[in-house]
């Protein structure tokens, strides 16, 4: 029985391919809508997936399970002038908030202050421009799990005694010490003050197209002196185990220390890379739905083309159908033959669409110089094939049924 079914299927497939080969141009034009639809699905899904992986990789540089308490939210979205003014007038995040989080927090692993400014750094005639100089504590390295390649990181004594020491990123080292393989112990100048280089950070790459290695780490108290009156607000970085639990605890502590009454809105923002990634995923949903709509229209147009061409095929092969029925072919076999033929045409279109979608994604990845990784989700390929099979069955059923219902006598008389 199994061999009989297999033989039947092979015969139907052979017949389908013979029919497609005999009408190559017509088959190609018929599959064009399917090709465009599947290409759109695979291409857009691949680009969105690559973009998500790139964004997730970039934001992971901020540290996993890390919460940043700021005056401003990282993502403000569309807001009115009144809402913006309300945020702008919030009280600064200050050392009082930092000390309260350190003292009362029970679900935090490390808490560290952070001030970042863009300063030029010099060494003799050499100058590194607009370096992200971060004033922080010895715990920050544990919060963002940043490795030191050479030398050491800041220590508690560096902060306590306000030592003029710094840890440099590789881009700064390359600019200031092009001839020196080990700059530990060398002197540089930041804001006219001389610093001793104590460590070199491991390379971290880029985030959203910006170098993460054009940085210098200095003790927080010295940075606080640098910014002086210009220091409006600090950032507090906190490493946590359970983000939701930590968020509630942070809110409770900050609302108390900032004297917020019940019902009053928070006047601070709790940011995290995870929340940013979730926000990004929400934004890509619109692009996803748009691409599905475009692909759906293409597939429906392609399906209508399949149905039309199958009706023409049934008309052209009416005598062949009559002969087959006269020698004993059952209506179900005729129906199966034309149905499989429609599905095969759709699947061929799907294969071409997948190939083109993957090729376009690869070209975009190369042009973006790796900023948009080449990545095709396996499920998008199955989705493409699933659409093709469904379109073939749905739009091929009517012509196939019409062929199976033909009267053999009338079919043989057909001219």
Topology:
Blueprint: H1 2-22, H2 24-60, E1 66-70, H3 81-88, H4 95-104, E2 108-123, E3 126-136, H5 140-143, E4 148-151, H6 156-160, E5 165-168, H7 170-176, E6 187-190, E7 193-201, E8 206-207, E9 210-211, E10 215-219, H8 220-227, E11 235-240, H9 243-257, E12 269-272, H10 273-316, H11 318-326, H12 331-367, H13 378-404, H14 408-413
Parallel strand pairs: 3-10, 5-7
Antiparallel strand pairs: 1-11, 1-12, 2-3, 2-6, 2-11, 4-7, 5-10, 6-7, 8-9
Helix pairs in contact: 1-12, 2-10, 2-12, 2-13, 4-9, 10-12, 10-13, 12-13
Key phrases:
two-stranded antiparallel sheet; 415 residues; 12 strands; alpha+beta; single chain
Concise synopsis of the structure shown:
This protein is an alpha+beta fold and about 425 residues long. It contains 14 helices and 12 strands. The longest helix is centred in the last third of the chain and has 44 residues.
For the biggest sheet, the summary is: 6 strands, mixed, barrel
State mean pLDDT (0 to 100 scale): 82
Task: Please state the overall shape, judged from the principal axes of the Cα atoms.
Answer: elongated
Name the helix and strand elements from N-terminus to C-terminus, one letter apiece. Answer: HHEHHEEHEHEHEEEEEHEHEHHHHH
How far is the N terminus from the C terminus? 37 Å
Alpha plus pi helix count? 14
Strand content: 15-25%
- The total count of strands amounts to 12
Q: What ranges have pLDDT less than 50 throughout 5 or more consecutive residues?
A: none
Helix content: 55-70%
- As a whole number of angstroms, the C-alpha radius of gyration is 33 Å
Spatial arrangement of strands, main beta sheet: 2-3-10-5-7-6
- Helix- and strand-based class? alpha+beta
């Amino acid at each position: 029985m199994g061999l009989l079914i297999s033989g039947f299927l092979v015969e139907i497939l052979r017949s389908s391919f013979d029919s497609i080969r005999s009408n190559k141009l017509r088959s190609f034009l018929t599959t064009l809508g399917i090709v465009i639809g599947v290409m759109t699905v695979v291409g857009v899904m691949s680009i969105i997936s690559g973009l998500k992986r790139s964004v997730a990789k970039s934001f992971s540089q901020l540290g996993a399970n890390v919460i940043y308490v700021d005056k401003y939210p990282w993502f403000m979205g569309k807001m009115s002038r009144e809402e913006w003014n309300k945020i702008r007038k919030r009280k600064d995040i200050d050392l009082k908030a930092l000390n309260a989080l350190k003292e009362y927090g029970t679900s935090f692993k490390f808490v560290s202050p952070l001030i970042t400014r863009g300063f030029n750094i010099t060494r003799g005639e050499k100058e590194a421009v607009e370096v992200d100089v971060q004033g922080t504590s010895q715990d920050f390295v544990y919060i963002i799990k940043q490795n030191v390649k050479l030398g050491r990181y800041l220590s508690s004594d560096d902060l306590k005694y306000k030592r003029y020491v710094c840890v440099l990123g590789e881009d700064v080292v390359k600019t200031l010490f092009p001839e020196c393989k080990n700059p530990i112990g060398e002197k540089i100048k930041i804001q006219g003050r001389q610093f001793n280089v104590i460590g070199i950070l491991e390379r971290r790459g880029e985030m959203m197209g910006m170098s993460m290695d054009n940085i210098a780490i200095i003790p927080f108290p010295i940075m606080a002196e640098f910014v002086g009156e210009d220091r409006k607000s600090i950032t507090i970085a906190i490493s946590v185990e359970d983000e939701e639990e930590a968020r509630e605890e942070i809110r409770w502590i900050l609302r108390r220390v900032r004297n917020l009454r019940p019902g009053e809105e928070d006047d601070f923002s709790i940011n995290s890379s995870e929340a940013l990634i979730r926000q990004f995923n929400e934004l890509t949903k619109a692009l996803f739905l748009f691409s599905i709509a475009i692909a759906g229209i293409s597939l429906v147009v392609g399906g209508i083309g399949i149905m039309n061409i199958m009706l023409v095929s049934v008309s052209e092969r009416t005598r062949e159908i009559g002969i087959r029925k006269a020698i004993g072919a059952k209506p179900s076999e005729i129906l199966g033959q034309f149905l499989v033929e429609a599905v095969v045409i759709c699947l061929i279109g799907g294969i071409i669409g997948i190939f083109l979608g993957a090729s376009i994604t690869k070209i975009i990845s190369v042009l973006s110089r790796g900023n948009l990784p080449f990545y095709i989700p396996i499920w998008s390929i199955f989705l493409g094939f699933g659409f093709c099979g469904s379109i073939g069955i749905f739009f091929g059923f009517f012509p196939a049924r019409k062929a199976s219902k033909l009267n053999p006598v009338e079919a043989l008389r057909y001219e």
